[in-house]
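Appendix B. Chain record.
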Amino acid sequence: MLWSHKGMAAKTIAAQLEVCQQTVSNWLTAFEQSGLAGLMRQKGQGRRPILSITNAAHQQALKSAVATHYQDACRIQADLQVALGQPMSRDTVKRFLKKNDYTYHRLRRSTKANQDP
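Structure tokens predicted for this chain:
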């Protein structure tokens, strides 16, 4: 905003900030229309989360899936996909487990290190 006030062109500002010229133009327009509030992220912007902590259906589906398949992220993922009718990755399930204070550790399937002599 200061550079624009000093007379720099949007193209020059964009080159300095390493962003697109249209982005700078959008910032300037938003600032002119709404001041600093226009530069704040507006409600509804950004990607919607696949699983939400505040959604009661998501919480209930997670509790039942964890109760059934504790420590098996693939099966929890499958249960959530069936219950909610929405595709999701295993990493999404792991992040959701972590946000809900569940701990996830991959189970070691091999007992090779614990063999008796």
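Further analysis of this model is presented in Appendix C.
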